[in-house]
## 1
Amino acid sequence: MMKLVSCLSLASVASAATAADPFLQKSSPIVAAAAGNNRILEDEGEDNGGGGNYDISGYSLMFNKCIKTKIAQNTDDDGCALFYNGACRSQYKSHVSFQLCTDGGNGKCVCDSSVDYVSDLDNFLEMSINYIGGGGGDDAMNYLQCAQGGADDNGNVLYYGPQCTDTGGLIVGGYYDDECTIKASYTPNLSYSTFTTIESTCQSCANGNCNEVYEDSNQCSGGKDISGRDDEDGVCNAAKRANTVMDYSGVKKRHAGAILIAKVFIGMLIIGLVGGFMFLTYTYYIRHRGDRTEHLVENVPVGAALT
């Protein structure tokens, strides 16, 4: 079964209701709604989530981020386990973080951002494509599963498969291995209308289509799994990093201030140099003008008229 835990200041309202009816505490979405629709769904199944009732038909799913985790390797004496195209490589596994939502009307989701549910990328794509009625015919659909796709500039065989962009979006990328875990520095030029649709679609779980993906997902909050499920891949920490938004506004302001001070200093320095040069020039002129006048007077014959 699922236990609903309130996370906002309205939790006292929900607590009063659940005290009167313990069943309400475990199963009613009304409690979550009273808490501002910000809820944590905790599984109480057996074997770390293996035997619970995963009926989330009253909710929807919304794509959040595509994230990747590094696969641990046993390195050789040189510290390199995977050598491809002249360099040591690492292996990565791709995942999707999604959020549970309620219907906000007009096809919009009202989602609980306090918890990220992290699923295997392949499973999430399969569920999503079934939900939207199949692919849109774009060529990225040819590489939903890892498949040979071409070669790099050095003639190395490349495999194409789903991959995460640097900003957490979905794309097809190049790999050196047939399991699409060793990333190559190559991205094929494909169309991605289906991936774009998946990223922006609020998927209703009314027909039970979300249950399997939900069951297999880690439930992450604050970089840790809160469901008791093993997190050997470190997906919760990866989800936390992906959701962290760095605010550089203060740095930019300080940088702008430093630039302004530097500009003022350089301007004053230039003015000082120009002013100093003009002063020295004028002083030189005054001094040597007097010398030339005395020299002229000394060479004029006695009795001659000065002109």
Note: Residues 1-40, 42-51, 246-251 have pLDDT under 50 and may be disordered.
## 2
Amino acid sequence: MTAQALEQFADENGFKFKKITRMPLEGDGTIRKKVSKVYNHLVDNEEWMEDLHAADVIFVASHSQGAIVSTHLVHRLIEDGHILTSRSVDDLAKSAASIAAGGAAAVSTTQAQRVFLLALCGIHLGPLRYLKTSSLQLYIQYVENAAARELFEFQNYIFALRNVMEHGAKVVYIASLNDQVVPIYSGLFTAASHPRILRALYIDNDAYHSFDLPSDLLILLIRNLRVAPSDRGALRFADIVRRLPPPSCDRGAHEYVAGVES
């Protein structure tokens, strides 16, 4: 879906990408195991790595737990030198200058890469709290074990996100109004604040009216996050009040809004 969106954007604006390389990555287990699996899967593919090193722009689309995994993945790729952002290029130039004769400033010819992350219904702050005490708990206990229980823990990946943001990445968090697993405040990762973090809310017109008062209130609170570092829990409270599912909604959007496997 990401590649299709890029191709559609290019067609609508009258230009064409030289090349778009699709790199589908997936893994199972806990977050740490998933990060290790998708990283190894990526670096073991020589063709993908060549295109990654040659890329001008890198788009990373993810869903649910994949939002946390993708942040760790980009962080690791930057640290290992596989992605060269403007900061990485500057650091390389300074290192070259420090070891050059006389410490002369080096002019780098390396093209800096730009990174964009899109997270759909990311489970950044855990799922809905009532799921922990529902019948789903039996499933978690006997089937998924550690990987599922981990969902209810706050994902401690601030260091990875901070490093990715410091390297100039842009991030878009999208939540869904009728997601029955991930609350809005978690999908939008309201605990994070940065000028390059953008947020959006998906509203299913078949289930909700996009211009009713509760929806307008949520949109206002989300816009407020752009100018205020904290909403003092208002968005979380509004999400809880809004949580009753509409009668026309047979399943949560968490199941079908995904464009990338988690």
Note: The CA atoms of residues 38 and 44 lie 10 Å apart.
## 3
Amino acid sequence: MTIDKSWTQIRKRSNSAVFWQGLQSFLQMAKPHVNDRGFIRCPCNKCINNVQHQLEVLETHIHRFGLMSDYNEWIYHGENVNAASSSNVPQPNSGVHDRDEMFEVLEDIISNDAEVDQLGSQSSNVQYDDLFTALNSELYPGVSSFSSLNFLVKLMHLKVMNKSFDELLKLLKLAFPKMDLVESYYEAKKLMTKMGLGYQSIHVCKNDCALFWNENSTSETCPVCSESRWKMQAGRRTGKNVPHKVLRYFPLAPRLKRLFATSKTAKLMRWHRAGKSTDDNVMQHPVDGRAWKDFDRKHPVFADDVRNVGWVWLPTVSTRSTI
């Protein structure tokens, strides 16, 4: 017997008796095929047979969003059940996100809420609209392994789990397979070092007496208190030398050079000369302060070059640097 499906093409569904009668016939046909919890795949344009609901929710969804236009054989709802393997019927999770596990996650969430809300009212499903939009949105054109929702959930998971930079790189490589990225934080740090943005690790005495630097760089014990440079376990050094404390020294000169390497930041670095206040009673930059002016008077050669910048630490003490 041919099933009348013409009602699915009606666009003005709210006041259509024909659509309502067709929807009721569809629900009656689907009723014997719900699972043991009363759930069945929802063929609305939001769920696209990827999420299961109770029949009351199906009624609300189909009436609100319409039935999938390419769901021509209702194999999950009673029509020609033996033809489930037909290649002409769209299968769940087919299309853009055919490997997106968020379909199952969202299905579990909605199914659990549907058990609480037996009425399946329209208002109870509005909260999922944004989730479905993100789930059915491509992360970027042509991607098939990630939806926007999937990628966002994985990013949030990294934040909650306090994962390392390496884990973030792995996620980016997975989401953007054609992206040319380093494989680890170690490789990224090596690359940044070549830009002059690295740092030097200097071991420090456990009691902050001295740095293991310059003439003390090879010492095994502190030259002041004789405390061991390395962490001990039961009075013995561990297999790998691990210092008690590490000072990370960021060389200043390479960073200043980088700031002057581009026109935008170079302009900002010279602002202390161009941005001087014309009103002696107004201070809009440390250059307008007494300490800066006093330094300039004492060191006119240094002050004459606008590229020489300074930092005023205390009202009477200033430190200036040149490149």
Note: Residues 83-99, 115-124, 312-320 have pLDDT under 50 and may be disordered.
